[in-house]
Amino acid sequence: MHNPYPDGPRFLDAKSQFLAHGAVEKGSVSKEIERSWRRCVENGMEAGAPVRTEILTQQELLEKQEANQLLLSHARPEMESLNAQISHTRSVIVLTDAQGFILHSQGNSEFLDDAQRVALIPGSSWQESLRGTNAIGTALVERSPMTVQGAEHFLERNHVLACSAVPILNARNQIMGTLDVSTDASMPQQHTLALVRMSAQMIENRLFIASHAGAYSLHFHARPEFIGTLWEGIAIFDDRHRLMALNRSGQFQLGITHEKLEDSLFSELFACRPESLMQAAQGSSLVTPLYTTREARLYARMTLRQAPGVRQPGATNSSASERHCAASLQMLNTGDPRVARIISQVELVLDQDIPILIEGETGVGKELFARAIHEASTRSRGPWVAVNCAALPEGLIESELFGYEEGAFTGARRKGSVGKLEQADGGTLFLDEIGDMPLALQARLLRVLQERSVTPLGSTKPKPVNFALLSATNQKLREKVERGEFRRDLYYRLNGLTATLPALRQRQDLPALINTILQTENAAGKTIDREVMALFKSHPWPGNVRQLHNVLRTALALSGASPISMMHLTQDFLDDMKNGVEEDAALSLSKLTAEAIKAAMQSHAGNVSAVARQLGISRNTLYRRMRAMNLM
Ligand SMILES: Nc1ncnc2c1ncn2[C@@H]1O[C@H](COP(=O)(O)OP(=O)(O)OP(=O)(O)O)[C@@H](O)[C@H]1O
User: Fold this and answer.
1) pLDDT at res. 313
2) Which SMART domains would you find in this protein's record (predicted)?
3) Who lines ligand 1 at CB under 6 A?
């Protein structure tokens, strides 16, 4: 019969030999186990001794949990998901602090007797000096992942256990704690350590990101599909592009140890300007190729963080490298007749001081389009300043837009602040989500547009400004005007020309658009199989081009070198697809019903009883349906 624990007798023999002669036969156990046994003997420990169960009081445990709050909060979700993967085995998952005290445990402990169950609950300690050779305590001493099975444990009481523990390190390579899975000694162990390693790495990545509040982080790997996984390198920089921290995978990929990290600049590590990646990071999670200064090719995604003092791209003059990232108007012309007409209209009014209002559903590419207009204009040498009116808190929007003088209000910065309107002088001001601008500010904005000057808060001196004005909205602005929620005079000021970008489901250039997106993902020429293309053509795309881009990006990562097929679409998208179809069906059904009712009303000259009879429904139902469909 298959013996699930073939090494049991070998470990027992090795242990007896070690206890009798102080040495083991070469190769019978690992060096780490032999070293640990030696430490146990040197500490005067006896293999057959009863276990001393050291357990913290409730108060002491609470204090330890408090002191390790960060570790606990990031480890808990990973322990949950590890538990879901191994819930069919009889195992307990344990998190300890750096001294080996259990902070949290979960799982199935039925395979243990009462004493051992107690040993795996929060508050008990697995220090090697107390419990002899064991995965947690020995991993902490050896600073490396350990599996300790059956008789490899020094104390006989622990021979029933098989445990795999991995130390969790912070960015400075200091041990924060361990993650361990303990199970019955007879359970095969070959995959357990790999699983625990992965979970520990996830916890390290989470801790790493949470403990460094830099200005931006760069996520990188030699293979694009590894970005966003536990194997990615993560580098965190401050707003002066100095490296603040690099995770272990990053240290390995870039070939630097954490001691050498101090004061490295972005430009010393990567052959690219951080600003160009920042531009790509705005509003999307684009993966871009880049080279290290040692000429290794990597892929990276930048994540901007909301730290104070971060210079956001867009609020400054657009540099040559940023400009290189923006799409040109003709690049956006991928064959849809409506888009082509809008582009030719825009080209006619370009540089003529005519404000353009860009309308369209979310994700149709309004900001991309606005940026392309700026790039095509003579103002492209001037600044591009984008303001998202929906993202600014109402109390801040005024000072953001208009700026303020020194000492204008309590808490104002000493030197005052230049508002966005003034920053845009000589370039383009893009007011995104303009429909969300509070009414009171609409009046002030209108005055600036009429007088072409800005008066910062706390000042009486107007400053002349000159910028091209673009704005965008996904709301029906005209309807807001009718409802009195948006100033009519401002509405007319903003829309010298209205450019309405079609929703993706209305566009006739889907394959060409897909090709453009594939190009931006460095995957030009990638094949998409017919089934997927047919699905894409019938999907209603509620998230528009942004959604298409995301679906393609994930499919590219999942498909590797093969053509994109159904198996590379995420379940999320397929579910969305199903719901869309159901919604569509419901929509067309209600349209058909409305048509049927209208026709029957006409042929029976409005006689409700006759119509109800013809349609086979009651008069009440007919009235209800007519009311719901606005037919009465
Ligand atoms: N013509 C296009 N070609 C390639 N990608 C596009 C195009 N239009 C839009 N996208 C993709 O869609 C994303 C969203 O575009 P953008 O932010 O300009 O949309 P938006 O209409 O301003 O959205 P929102 O209303 O939500 O602000 C872009 O980051 C890009 O990935």
Assistant:
1) 32
2) AAA (SM00382)
3) 283-284, 332, 360, 362-368, 472, 474, 516-517, 545-546, 549
What was the pLDDT predicted at 288? 79
How far separated are the first and last CA of the chain, in Å rounded? Answer: 80
The pLDDT of residue 442 is above 80: yes
CATH of the domain at 515: 1.10.8.60
Give, using CA atoms, the residue closest to atom 8 of ligand 1.
Answer: 365
What residue ranges in 422-558 does DSSP mark as E strands? Answer: 428-432, 453-454, 463-464, 468-473, 497-500
Domain boundary among 537, 569, 601: 569
Whether 252 and 395 map to the same domain: the answer is: no
Query: What is the helix (H) or strand (E) element at residue 337, kind and residue range?
Result: helix 337-349
47 within domain boundaries = yes
Token output for 55 = 């357990």
Specify whether 204 is located in the same domain as 222: no
Q: How far is the CA of 621 from the centre of ligand 1 (A)?
A: 44
Cα-to-centroid distance, 306 and ligand 1 (Å): 22
- Residue 425 sits in the same domain as residue 517: no
**What is the position in ligand 1's atom list of the atom closest to the CA of 517?**
4
Here the tokens at position 520 are: 């931006």
Within a domain: 28? no
Is 2 inside a domain boundary? no
Name the residue range of residue 369's domain.
320-500
Is the ipTM, as predicted for this complex, more than 0.95? yes
Looking at the structure, tell me whether residues 152 and 240 fall in a common domain.
Answer: no
For 148-186, what is each residue's pLDDT tens digit? 999 999 999 888 899 999 999 987 788 999 999 999 888
Please report the atom of ligand 1 found closest to the CA of residue 501.
21
Distance CA 384, CA 380 (A): 8
- Test site for ligand 1: of 541, 545, 547, most ligand atoms within 8 A of the Cβ: 545
444 CA from centroid of ligand 1 (Å): 30
Instruction: Give the pLDDT confidence of 263-272 residue by residue, as tens digits.
Output: 788 988 998 8
pLDDT in tens, 336-382: 999 999 998 998 888 888 999 999 998 899 999 999 999 889 888 88
User: Final residue of a domain: which of 208, 236, 270?
Assistant: 208
- Per the CB < 8 A criterion, the answer to whether 132 and 153 are in contact is yes
Residue 468 lies inside a defined structural domain of this protein: yes
CATH number, position 270: 3.30.450
Are residue 328 and residue 393 in the same domain, yes or no?
A: yes
- In this prediction, residue 311 carries a pLDDT of 32
Cα 372 to the chain's mean position, in Å? 27
* Ligand 1: residue whose CA is nearest its atom 23: 363
pLDDT digit string, tens, across residues 566-582: 988 877 788 766 665 44
Same domain, 495 and 511: no
Mean pLDDT, rounded, of the chain: 82
For ligand 1, the distance from its centroid to the CA atom of residue 223, given in whole angstroms, is: 25
The ligand 1 atom at the shortest distance from the C-alpha of residue 513 is 3
Number of compact structural domains in the chain: 5
| 442 and 384 share one domain | yes
Q: What pLDDT score was predicted for residue 426? A: 92
> Tell me, what's the pLDDT at 141?
97
Nearest atom in ligand 1 to the alpha carbon of residue 544 is: 12
Q: How far apart are CA 244 and CA 230, in angstroms?
A: 20
Percent of the chain with pLDDT over 70: 84
d(CA 583, CA 585): 5
Tell me whether strands 146-149 and 288-291 are parallel, antiparallel or unpaired: unpaired
Please indicate, yes or no, whether residues 337 and 436 belong to a single structural domain of this protein. Answer: yes
